[in-house]
Amino acid sequence: MNDVRLVTVRSEIAAGTRGAALGIDAMIVASLDNKSTFFAEHESVNVEDANAVLFKKNKFPNAKYINKVHEVLERVCETTSSVMESDYFPVVLAGDHSTAAGTICGVKKANPDKRLGVIWIDAHADLHSPYTTPSGNMHGMPLAMVSNEDNMESKVNDPDTETTAYWDAIKNVGTRGPKIEASDIVFISVRDTEGPENVLMRKHGIRNFKTEEVREKGTKQIAAEALEQLSHCDIIYVSFDVDSMDSRISKGTGTPVENGLTVEEALELNKLLVADKRVCAWEIVEVNPTLDRENTMAENAFRILSETVNVIEKRLGKNNMVTV
Ligand SMILES: NC(=[NH2+])NCCC[C@H](N)C(=O)O
Ligand SMILES: [Mn+2]
Asked: The pTM is what?
């Protein structure tokens, strides 16, 4: 692979709180405050958002703005797959976490014959479907989208036919059918889940390295075990939701949760994971500066972004050291 290519997606329509679209620009501000040349050194390609729909009334209570979420996911998939096809490593900077489904679809589209594993560093499992969601917020659904898990055995909602038609279209973005096996998901620091998600985690035996386990065993061992858990996978996508970090450090994210990772733990885990040659795409999401004080979350997120990209570039044989 050539080098890293940044993909920016300022989309926030799948979050329940406003402001995640500003997360990317808050990281750019953090980089400037730090006198970093990171954003000058890395070319980026922008994916058009559909945030204007937020001025309109939502018509889909069990999957808010699903028509527009579908549109954005198609675009993210297209961009990610073409970045990979031109031999670049996609580093996706996004607003809400639903985008991750588009990235996964794009990775699969560019690598249809490879078994794709997912390492999901997050406070949440994001395994809901319109049939189970407690909120209708689609950033709680990306892993169900890509594993085709409707979770009918846990059904609590009755979405209308327009909603289910869009949901079925989303499950076929990029390539038809599931992109991953649900058992090829590894969670790190997931600690805020609902009953229907717990059912799926048990059903598929999804390994969750809790914050306590990270602290007890150390980041090196956890990264090694997470990668080992996916030893049968050919390629791996790592998704980093900043709400995996503890809510005491910063509230600059839409759904903060206690008992999360420290910045150092998150930093080390991401760096250790992307050092594995099978990791072929990385994403950072859910920075929301409107909920923060002093841009703390974006500063931490930018540090993690730049150091993680540095490791990826070293791996790809690039020596351009990033000033942090
Ligand atoms: N990517 C996220 N921040 N997801 C939060 C999801 C929260 C909750 N499980 C819901 O579905 O509404
Ligand atoms: Mn998430």
From this structure: 0.97
